[in-house]
Amino acid sequence: MSEVIEQNKIPRRALYTGETIPAVGLGTFGSDKYGPEQVSEAVYGSIKAGYRLIDCAAVYQNEDRIGEVLKRVLEEGIAERKELFVTSKVWNDMHGEGQVLESCRKSLQDLQLSYIDLYFVHWPFPNYHAPGCDGDSRNPDSRPFSAEEFMSVWRQCEQLVEEGLVRYIGMSNMTVPKLKAVLPLCKIKPAALEMELHPGFQQPELFDYAVSQGIQPIGYCPIGSPSRPERDRTAEDVADTQMPEIVEIAEKHNIHPALVCLKWAAQRGQIPIPFSVKEPQFVSNLKCITEDPLTEEEMETIRKADKDCRLIKGQVFLWPGAKGWEDLWDLDGEITGGGK
Ligand SMILES: NC(=O)c1ccc[n+]([C@@H]2O[C@H](COP(=O)([O-])OP(=O)(O)OC[C@H]3O[C@@H](n4cnc5c(N)ncnc54)[C@H](OP(=O)(O)O)[C@@H]3O)[C@@H](O)[C@H]2O)c1
């Protein structure tokens, strides 16, 4: 009999409406390594184990299989629809007028749901790369962030809420300057910001800004994405599970360093969405936030260990003339490339 974590033991986080959602979720990006079958079986197993938040996206190319297991979960009474919190995301090639609705309808159909709980704009520009492409591939139509173009996508997202197809909308891969440009223009504010967050990349400024605006940070690559695709690897990358501070704390708690990353994430206040298709891993990833918390001192040790090491640099989204991946992230505090 597999282990089941009781719902009342799992901490929750409040969205701006006061509604609470689980403090940890399951990622579903197979990193070009795990196919739809493996990922969807993990979704089934993880919901059985107690997960209720599932992070999906059209570009992960597995929503149809995940839809089959969600149906099974509901039919078998493992969870009720209202207990689940399912996210999806519009991919960069569907930003045109009318395309966000089309993409959302496709995700709804694939996921076999009548509504999505939280629908993200996956990246804040229409720069497209083919799934599985290599790190040097560039699309000549790529261009810098434009607040006007972004808002045309956001208006379509707001319409999805108005039509009852999605309950909340969110942004992903944003920066403080981009948020400052678009937040005043939103009729419906983002409930969450999905961003890269792990001990080696803590983004304190963006994290604090999101929280100050009542936007819940959701942390992707919470374990440092050890299985990420080749295109997202460079020689300088720091492996979180090998950082000496993380290893030492793991030894003290007698747990895997991955679990230290997740405890840190949940205690700091972001919602980590670790990926795993392996039952012992995904069970322990959920269970670890229900027991044996890190001490304040350990939390402080990890805060100080930040390496400012971004793993998902996004270089495949660069536009012709961009200097390097840093241009995507507005490092000098202004929107690189204009932003109008
Ligand atoms: N919004 C965005 O742009 C964006 C970008 C990236 C990711 N995401 C989302 O965030 C999710 C998580 O990110 P990610 O999958 O890249 O990285 P991750 O969750 O940091 O790393 C996942 C990998 O960590 C290992 N792992 C998991 N649990 C473990 C445990 N208990 N002990 C030891 N190793 C463990 C597994 O490696 P092995 O498979 O080798 O065992 C697994 O494949 C994605 O699935 C996706 O839903 C969103």
Shape: globular
- SSE string: EEEHEHEHEHEHEHEHHEHH
Terminal-residue CA separation: 56 Å
Round the mean pLDDT to the nearest integer and report it. 95
Provide an overview of this structure:
By secondary structure, this protein is α/β, with parallel strands linked by helices. The protein has one domain (7-329): NADP-dependent oxidoreductase domain (TIM Barrel), CATH 3.20.20.100. Helices cover 33% and strands 12% of the residues. α1 (36-49) crosses α9, α2 (63-75) packs across α3 (99-111) and α7 packs across α8 (257-268). It is globular and about 50 Å long. The chain starts with 11 loop residues before the first strand and ends in a 36-residue tail after the last helix. The structure holds NADP nicotinamide-adenine-dinucleotide phosphate. NADP nicotinamide-adenine-dinucleotide phosphate is lined by residues 27-29, 31, 55, 122, 172-173, 194, 220-228, 256, 258-259, 273-276, 278, 281, 284-285, 312.
In short:
Pfam families: Aldo_ket_red. GO terms for molecular function: oxidoreductase activity. The chain has helices at 36-49, 63-75, 99-111, 147-162, 176-182, 204-212, 244-253, 257-268, 279-287, 296-304; strands at 12-14, 20-22, 26-27, 53-55, 85-90, 116-121, 166-172, 192-196, 216-220, 271-272.
How do the strands and helices of this protein lay out in sequence?
Layout lengths: L11 E3 L5 E3 L3 E2 L8 H14 L3 E3 L7 H13 L9 E6 L8 H13 L4 E6 L25 H16 L3 E7 L3 H7 L9 E5 L7 H9 L3 E5 L23 H10 L3 H12 L2 E2 L6 H9 L8 H9 L36
Parallel strand pairs: 3-4, 4-5, 5-6, 6-7, 7-8, 8-9, 9-10
Antiparallel strand pairs: 1-2
Helix pairs in contact: 1-2, 1-9, 2-3, 7-8
Bound molecules: NADP nicotinamide-adenine-dinucleotide phosphate.
InterPro entries: AKR (IPR020471), Aldo/ket_reductase_CS (IPR018170), NAD(P)_OxRdtase_dom_sf (IPR036812), NADP_OxRdtase_dom (IPR023210)
GO molecular function: oxidoreductase activity
Organism: Eisenbergiella tayi
